[in-house]
Specification:
The structure holds two protein chains of two kinds. Helices cover about 70% and strands about 5% of the residues of chain A. Chain A contains 27 helices and four strands. In chain A, the strands form two sheets. Chain A has a two-stranded antiparallel sheet with strand order 1-2. In chain A, helix 16 packs antiparallel against helix 17 (about 370-390) and helix 17 runs antiparallel to helix 22. The model of chain A is unreliable at about 610-639 (pLDDT under 50). Chain B has 21 helices and no strands. In chain B, helix 4 (about 45-70) packs antiparallel against helix 5, helix 7 runs antiparallel to helix 12 and helix 18 crosses helix 20. Classes of the chains: A mainly alpha, B mainly alpha. The interface of A and B includes residues 224 and 229 of A.
Chain lengths: ~650, ~525
Amino acid sequence: MSELSWLFALLPAIVAGVVAAYLPREAQAKHRFALGAVIFLLVAGIGALWPEAAAEEAQDKAEEWPYLLDLLVALPLVGGIFVLFLPRQMLTLVRGFTYAIFAATFVASLWLLGIDYAPGWHFVHITPWIESFGIRWHVAVDGISVWLVILATFTTPIAAFSSFGSIHKNIKELCAAYLLLEAAMIGSFVALDLFVFYLFWELMLVPMFLMIGVWGGADRIKAAIKFFVFTMAGSVLMLGALLYMVWTHHQLTGQWSFDYLDLVQVILPGQLGSWGAQAACFWAFSLAFFVKVPMFPVHTWLPDAHTEAPTGGSVVLAAVMLKFGTYGYLRFSMGLFPGQATTYAPTLAGVAIMGGILYGALCAWKQNDVKRLVAYSSVAHLGFVMLGLFGATVSGIQGGILQMINHGIATGALFLLVGVIYDRRHTREVSEFGGLAKVMPVYAALFVIVTMASIGVPGTNGFVGEFMIIAGTYVSERLNQFSSIQAVGAAFGVILAAVYMLSVVQKMFFGPLTHPKNKRLNDITVREGLALAPLIALIFILGWFPRLLLDRMEPAVAAFRTQLVNLSELAKSDHMQPARYSAARLAPAEMFGSGYLDGAPSLEAEKKDEPESAGADAQAAALEVRDDGTVRAAPGGAR
Amino acid sequence: MSSLIAWIPDVFVALAPLLVVTLGGVLLMLSEVLSKRPAGSSGPSSDLAMGSFLAMGTGAVVALALWFVGPENLAGAEDAAPYLIVDRFSLFFQLLLCLGGALAALLAGGYLPEHRLDRGEFYPLLIFGTVGAMILAAAGDILSLFLGLETMSLAVYAMVGFRRGSMRSTEAAVKYFLLGSFAAALLLYGGALLYGATGKTDLVGIGEAVRAAADGTQTTFSWGLLLVAMALILAGLAFKVSAVPFHMWTPDAYEGAPTPVTSYMAVAVKSAAFAMMLRVLLTAFGDPSSMSWGSGWPPVIAFLAVLTMTVANLVAGQQESVKRMLAYSSIAHAGYVLVGVVALMKSDSGAQEAVLFYLLAYTVSTAGAFGALVLCGSRGREAVSYEDLSGIGKRHPAAALALSLFLLSLTGVPATAGFFGKLYIVKASIGAGLHVLAVVLLLNSVVAAYYYLRVLVYMYMREPAPGAPIAIPMKSGYVSTALVLSAALVLLLGIFPSSWLELATSAALAMAP
């Protein structure tokens, strides 16, 4: 194997060369080059997914380059600002520069896959920023967030690429918006300092707002403002809760810190399920994420935003930005408030099923506008993801994360496909179409494939995620006696998905070709095919080899779940003791997996203190305090 | 040289920022009166704008120099007390006010010639108004406080009515004058009653008397008199910072005044009023019982704050004129600052520095927003309504970008000054246990986002209706300079807030009891 490893390393180049050389004759050199480049990146990306490749690379460079995540954020950020200074007339230069940045970011993000994802944080980089407030640039990935980072670096270029086919005004600003959006998305996924997270979270709104508002459809302005105000209303409450947590942490330890690893130790006062600081902060955080997911009843911005956004904007919005809701709920709501998250899980799971999966599906069924239909199907699919997270079994969480990726791929592809037909007919009404399979056979075939993935037919990626979620829900002890009913409800949602997706496929592609305008439609172009090809490839790869993702996310998910269970047990025992729930305190450090809290400012401060209090007594005393399991650092005075 | 410095009385050194600006104002006024302009030459703005910018800029630099020397190292710092107090707090505000004044001078340098209002008296008025504001920020006695207030107000009344031919401008000036005098009378009457209750006119003395009465050491004390005095003074202060329900004059005065004056009122006058408010509340009513929720001013201010934020934001969303929207938005921002003022009740909440930082952030953002509005219009084609701004993002990208930046800062989008301003205020109010106020503030900032974004929507996402009047941007080096200056500060405060917060913190410490 080792003597052939060079062949493995060259595989992307070889495949790319072969495909580019065997293109149909009429293709120009630049098409060959573009296709070659896309194939190269695709094969390189798929190759990086295989654990064997990862293991080999891991031998080469075992250490993690700490600036990699900085680079991933900085490349599109700097590129996005730089692109604004390029001359407006030189479209090729502007686009080429944008592609180059995207490609570089994507390739850089593949390095993330080159390591073994043991529990804990990887590619950690910490630099002080605003020291008087304890705000630090703290970025890291674990086996959960790494997939979302790659999803962002993978789908944003596709969205941008497809946009250039249909949008012809303000290209320079569009490029800048895409690049800044990508930077903000990557930044939010990798930030472990909640301040940095909030910063990128808010920053993300501006390019998306502009994208909907400037390049959107007829009713774009209303949709853009609705999008901005809904999301901001959720996130300001999160900011308030965040500041309350930071302040509580300051009261407990005397240190200002916005660090996730510090705040995760804080247990706010309040009983489970009753109104108190803990519940208020849980709901403030969760509301911000529920708006973004979006969950019923705060989902109403999504159909409008999707309908009015340009195709590329819809793709990014659906594929990546909605994942901030689910990712944020997993990381922050469940991470920071494990007790409350457990208490409310059965209720919220019910909301996810009734309001998300079933209601979303029924709404999708009744839509005449295909794009609106896909938007409502997003509500239903993300209901599945949320259900997996609420159930919080290992398979449920894994299925939820996998389904985040799957939804990104399948719905991204669906939006691209809807964009194709919209560019030709400038309408998305289902009743305008019929019998398209006769004039656009390739398009129809691709649409059916993506539809299958979206429904979750075995063999496509959607099946694995939904199956794991439903199985996880069925056995979840957190959902109490309702778990089996909820699993049945979710399974019924899969049937409804088949109903609404297949009925639209039937109406659009089969039957008589009646409308005269439909008789002269072109099949999909090389550009559109190029944008879709990577997504279609991944539908099958993830459908057949889900372990590529599952194996590597499992340690992190299992560790996260153990921590969640431990902390929620602690919260349950606190619930009975007024002395413990009436005041804020710090969770004992052994509740967290070993190495999980590495890099937390409080631990670093302790390390610094240790040489000074080198006496054996002092250390023994410190250990005692830890063993007793209630107070790790006495408020204020201990430091 | 050293002999020269030795010859200058110590107190002059301590009051140098004030004196420099005053001297600059006198010199400019004299030079304007004595110089003869040949017909057809450029108007007085061409010299005076730069002159007043330099005068106030020098004032700011001198204030900064004194800051680094440290007021405690100045021999004459105590000489003017209690009438004028030289401490970091007053130096901070002198810096801030000079900055606001200097920006207004630059805006006027472009605005006045463009709109044929170019008369020389504007600049001395501006400078003397700033001197009044600086006195107000440093005043430690009811008398000097009133003196500063009136010096500032008279100059501003005249500037509001500067567009003599315009009914609106005149109406605004008269309205502002009548209500402003009323507020001044309330303050003065409150001060007189305070003197009656405590026998003192200096704030420290009043504070001691109130504290003694609250402790019970002073038994013959007229609480009724004190309460009435406090109510009158709070009402007067609320007038000056234009808190709801004392805000009725603000939209009309702001809309009618020439835009640089509006900017000056929103920035310098408001900051000076807040300086006065902080000084009076913390020094004269800074005893534990007056600062407690149960028996003092915090609930009153909290009520004003909630009312101010909510009403102003809701009304601002209804406006069709951008200038009027910004007027209401400045009222709303006063409400946010008032939340910080309430948080003063707990001394370790960090509320003082939050208020100071907020005022700094608000100053650069608001001055910038009004400045960008000046730049977006020209004579006869002013940018007044939202419609006027349609499509300006395409016609004049630089002006639109500047306006967007300042509006995003006012919205509180991260990486701008306004975000950290709000963050610190919310943090302070949470630290003081005022969770409800914090939530009200945050929700209000969402409402505010709606109308700030509307400007962006018009600038970037709409095309002007055919034949509709559109704003045509003017060209002016002065205005551009002011915008570049404020934009740089907005970003600097937004990306590296640490050192600025330290500045505010050490200014706040000077006030700690």
